[in-house]
């Protein structure tokens, strides 16, 4: 019987999932986002109940070349499984980087074939690989052969609406040994515009039997349940909806409820201090600015533009932490049932 003829029940988001020989504690994942899901963010997301988290994209050749940024992105803090996402355009460097990642604690290697950023696709990596399936599969095959840990793949529907080839690549990747596949329901040329096409992901479900993870515009519990039902996927992945609320994925998975305003302020301060410690005060302050902005937009939306600007441009970490947390704690902007400003 073909998979497309089977009508399997939609799995519970809180139920475990297995990728190869690795057990995942639930079916809601934090998407890898370059410049966002660093070790502090992943640590918090994991603590709040994310099923699994994935490192920021690690450039394969730069990791082999001992680049400090790549090694920083590879770090872990006891999160299990430790999933490292690799990006690249050459099979040799992908294989060598996979060996390094596995030797340094990676439990799963994820291949990036979905990043739409111009600086990535301009180097023929990320979603640009979908324009040449044969070449893309050479990277998959080399990575699978290089390591004993499970290898997974994250991609989009295709490069553009005229080249929707995710089912083709997914089937070939499974045949090459990939043990789970994540599909973002947009093409590369869509970037993040419009609405993710959850129904289109089902075409991948119909040709693969490995776990399928559906990604794109998952913001609420209802979204997570609907994308599973419409795509036929086994799990969901949330990205941008987690910005400014690292607990969000855990909430989608049925963990603890949304924190109250005072607790959000405390989580913000902890997150901010973790970033300062991880990067160092000066670099950490710069890296944290976008996170500060997301927290303020979500949980202190009634803050004046002048005060928000002053917080974001301050070079005094203690002042930023104090003023932003006070703004969150004292905000009178009502929160919706989903824990964001209504």
UniProtKB/TrEMBL annotation:
<feature type="binding site">
    <location>
        <position position="85"/>
    </location>
    <ligand>
        <name>FMN</name>
    </ligand>
</feature>
<dbReference type="InterPro" id="IPR013785">
    <property type="entry name" value="Aldolase_TIM"/>
</dbReference>
<keyword id="KW-0285">Flavoprotein</keyword>
<feature type="binding site">
    <location>
        <begin position="239"/>
        <end position="240"/>
    </location>
    <ligand>
        <name>FMN</name>
    </ligand>
</feature>
<comment type="similarity">
    <text>Belongs to the dus family.</text>
</comment>
<dbReference type="Pfam" id="PF01207">
    <property type="entry name" value="Dus"/>
</dbReference>
<feature type="domain" description="DUS-like FMN-binding">
    <location>
        <begin position="30"/>
        <end position="301"/>
    </location>
</feature>
<feature type="binding site">
    <location>
        <position position="184"/>
    </location>
    <ligand>
        <name>FMN</name>
    </ligand>
</feature>
<keyword id="KW-0819">tRNA processing</keyword>
<dbReference type="GO" id="GO:0017150">
    <property type="term" value="F:tRNA dihydrouridine synthase activity"/>
</dbReference>
<keyword id="KW-0820">tRNA-binding</keyword>
<dbReference type="InterPro" id="IPR035587">
    <property type="entry name" value="DUS-like_FMN-bd"/>
</dbReference>
<dbReference type="InterPro" id="IPR001269">
    <property type="entry name" value="DUS_fam"/>
</dbReference>
<keyword id="KW-0521">NADP</keyword>
<protein>
    <recommendedName>
        <fullName>tRNA-dihydrouridine synthase</fullName>
        <ecNumber>1.3.1.-</ecNumber>
    </recommendedName>
</protein>
<keyword id="KW-0694">RNA-binding</keyword>
<feature type="active site" description="Proton donor">
    <location>
        <position position="115"/>
    </location>
</feature>
<dbReference type="InterPro" id="IPR004652">
    <property type="entry name" value="DusB-like"/>
</dbReference>
<dbReference type="GO" id="GO:0000049">
    <property type="term" value="F:tRNA binding"/>
</dbReference>
<feature type="binding site">
    <location>
        <position position="154"/>
    </location>
    <ligand>
        <name>FMN</name>
    </ligand>
</feature>
<dbReference type="InterPro" id="IPR018517">
    <property type="entry name" value="tRNA_hU_synthase_CS"/>
</dbReference>
<dbReference type="InterPro" id="IPR024036">
    <property type="entry name" value="tRNA-dHydroUridine_Synthase_C"/>
</dbReference>
<keyword id="KW-0560">Oxidoreductase</keyword>
<dbReference type="GO" id="GO:0050660">
    <property type="term" value="F:flavin adenine dinucleotide binding"/>
</dbReference>
<keyword id="KW-0547">Nucleotide-binding</keyword>
<comment type="function">
    <text>Catalyzes the synthesis of 5,6-dihydrouridine (D), a modified base found in the D-loop of most tRNAs, via the reduction of the C5-C6 double bond in target uridines.</text>
</comment>
<keyword id="KW-0288">FMN</keyword>
């Amino acid at each position: 019987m073909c998979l497309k003829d089977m009508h399997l029940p939609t799995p519970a988001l809180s139920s475990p999932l297995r990728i190869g020989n690795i057990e995942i504690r639930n079916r809601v994942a934090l998407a890898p986002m370059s410049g966002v899901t660093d070790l502090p963010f992943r640590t918090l997301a994991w603590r709040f109940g994310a099923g699994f988290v994935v490192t920021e994209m690690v450039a394969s050749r730069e990791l082999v070349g001992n680049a400090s940024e790549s090694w920083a992105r590879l770090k872990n803090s006891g999160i299990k499984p430790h999933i490292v996402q690799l990006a690249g355009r050459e099979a040799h460097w992908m294989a060598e980087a996979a060996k390094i990642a596995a030797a340094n604690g990676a439990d799963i290697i994820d291949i990036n074939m979905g990043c739409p950023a111009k600086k990535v696709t301009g180097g023929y990596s990320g979603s640009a690989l979908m324009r040449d399936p044969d070449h893309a599969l050479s990277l998959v095959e080399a990575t699978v052969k290089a390591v004993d840990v499970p290898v997974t793949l994250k991609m989009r529907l295709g490069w553009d609406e005229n080249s929707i080839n995710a089912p083709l690549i997914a089937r070939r990747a499974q045949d090459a040994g990939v043990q789970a596949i994540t599909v973002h329901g947009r093409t590369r040329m869509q970037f993040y515009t419009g609405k993710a096409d959850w129904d289109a992901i089902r075409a991948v479900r119909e040709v693969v039997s490995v776990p399928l993870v559906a990604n794109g515009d998952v913001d609420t519990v209802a979204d997570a349940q609907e994308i599973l039902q419409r795509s036929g996927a086994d799990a969901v992945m949330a990205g941008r909806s987690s910005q400014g609320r690292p607990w969000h994925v855990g909430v989608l998975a049925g963990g603890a409820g949304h924190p109250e305003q005072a607790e959000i302020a405390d989580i913000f301060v902890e997150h901010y201090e973790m970033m300062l410690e991880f990067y160092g005060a000066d670099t950490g302050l710069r890296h944290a600015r976008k996170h500060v902005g997301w927290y303020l937009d979500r949980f202190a939306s009634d803050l004046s533009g002048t005060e928000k600007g002053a917080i974001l441009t301050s070079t005094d970490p203690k002042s930023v932490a104090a003023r932003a947390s006070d703004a969150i704690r004292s905000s009178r902007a009502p929160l919706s049932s989903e824990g964001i400003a209504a």
